[in-house]
Predict the 3D structure of the following.
Amino acid sequence: MTTPATRTSPRKRTSNGLTAQIGADEIGLDALIGHAGYAVRRFQIWIFQDFIRTLGEVDIRPTQYSVLTVIGANPGLSQMAVAKRLGIERARLVHLLDSLEQRKLVKRIKSKSDRRSHALHLTAQGETALAKFKRLAAEHERHVEDKIGKANRERLLQILAGFT
Amino acid sequence: MTTPATRTSPRKRTSNGLTAQIGADEIGLDALIGHAGYAVRRFQIWIFQDFIRTLGEVDIRPTQYSVLTVIGANPGLSQMAVAKRLGIERARLVHLLDSLEQRKLVKRIKSKSDRRSHALHLTAQGETALAKFKRLAAEHERHVEDKIGKANRERLLQILAGFT
DNA sequence: CGCAATTGTTGTCGTCAACAACAATCTTCC
DNA sequence: GGAAGATTGTTGTTGACGACAACAATTGCG
């Protein structure tokens, strides 16, 4: 937990001779505390690890989940549209869909109105699978609540609503 | 950042129009909204990009900045201690320090008390450089304030304080 | 002393963002 | 109607990053 945030300057003389070995929990972060990016990075690592662990039994990672969710809610989207909406490179989405298609969760249907693009749909298997994924994702979300508190999670979502 | 330049393809329905092409901003996220992880991921991408851009003139990335800050505040630390404190693999820290040492910002001093380890220090050049980095980082932090609001940034730091 | 643990290092593997190039196809404009 | 330009999906490369495994040198402990 390492909460002694009030520590200021734990430096011990080391300039030439003996090296002062300090425990990791005694090291001052100084300017790092107060940087939103640092806190957000650490939190994002934690939250992704919990997501990956909670959905480990179904082998679904956060990005895969977001793709499935968007396709499920908007059948027929093109790869370009999905990529743009989720902030994923379309080059990257190709591999993601290759994987999901091999697992029979998604299918690419050649669009007749624009033969360059594919209309993305969930398979029947994908629909039922996504339902299970959503239950597990909800469980993960409860872990977040346990970690930072229900009210804080709500506030967090509210603060960051503009980025979704 | 959900690039503002992606204002493309305002077309919505092709002439024969079987497949409905929708603009990216009209796509429903459904279950994705309400997931803390998704919002945090998008926010983290935005904040890192702004950090990288704001400190682009000095070519310092977030991880490099965190390493320099910790060493600056705690001279003489071993690589192990820095890695543990920042949640970086010690294997990864090797390359980070190689780069920073080549740029004459950091020096590894062989510890006499434990000849396995190195005591990490900023060079004189590193000290003055870090001062400049901190000014630019503060500017970046103001961008965050502009984006989500001063009060929200404070609240965010408070909520995520346990992860630093 | 001898053996386990630690430290820095090297290497591999997989994820992810950012680009670049390309063929097929569509749109636009002359 | 047709050439020129843009878009879509695809392949490939690069670099940052996290996770692991193995290794030599060194330390610490039984």
In short: Residues 8-9, 61, 63, 88-89, 91-92, 114-117 of chain B lie near DNA strand D (CB under 10 Å from a C1'). The beta strands of chain B are 106-110, 118-122. Chain B has a mean pLDDT of 84.
